[in-house]
Design brief:
single chain, alpha/beta, Rossmann fold, four-stranded mixed β-sheet, 8 helices
Length: 208
């Protein structure tokens, strides 16, 4: 990664991960209410659109042949095959927004985050955790989408994912969404004050 990643006017790359039920999406929605210079990236998929889904808003819908071509051309920040379909984050829309000074959030799983980190270690990596496993189980149960066997598997996966939390730069405990969103906002603010990002400003101040 070149030093240009830290240019003062360049947007931030923010990766948010966490187990299902931790509230990643809810936190992102709360952030978007208050952060005007922030956008959540749109993923691409080879699956068919569902009722109500809009191209470019919910997903970029791409056929499998084109998706595989994009993989071959290194056009994804990260991607994965889930059952019979591919999902991934197209690189160019994210980098173009960052070049325009827009901060971009990638809400992705730990495998996707690892792919992004390999090429963009200077990104901001945030892991969202629930206040307790008991609370996480309660949230997932209240969705009413899992039978007992599926719930147990979901909880096992969640515990495995949470063990990876310390690989991230920041951990946010989502006990209350508004508080968690403020913590993420504070992280973004602090990152904008990093000395690497303000190096050119310091040179302006001292007249170089």
């Amino acid at each position: 990664m070149s030093s240009s990643f830290y240019e003062r006017d360049k947007g931030l790359l923010i990766v948010i991960s966490g187990p299902s039920g931790a509230g990643k999406g809810t936190i992102c929605k709360e952030l978007l209410k208050h952060e005007k210079n922030l956008e959540v990236s749109v993923s691409a998929t080879t699956r068919d659109p569902r009722n109500g889904e809009v191209e470019g808003k919910n997903y970029y819908f791409i056929n499998k042949a084109n998706f595989l071509d994009m993989i071959g051309n290194n056009e994804f920040l990260e991607y994965a095959k889930v059952y019979d379909n591919y999902y991934g984050t197209p690189k160019s829309p994210v980098l173009e927004k960052m070049d325009r000074g827009i901060d971009v959030i990638l809400e992705i799983d730990i495998q996707g985050a690892a792919q992004v980190r390999a090429n963009y270690p200077e990104g901001i990596y945030i892991f969202v955790v629930p206040p307790s496993i008991k609370e996480l189980k309660k949230r997932i149960t209240e969705r009413g989408t899992e039978n007992p066997e599926q719930l147990n598997k979901r909880m096992e996966c969640a515990c495995d994912e949470i063990r990876n939390a310390t690989k991230y730069s920041y951990i946010v405990i989502n006990d209350e969404v508004t508080v968690a969103a403020k913590q993420v906002s504070a992280i973004i603010t602090a990152e904008k004050c990093r000395s690497e990002r303000l190096k050119s400003k310091i040179e302006e101040i001292i007249g170089r």
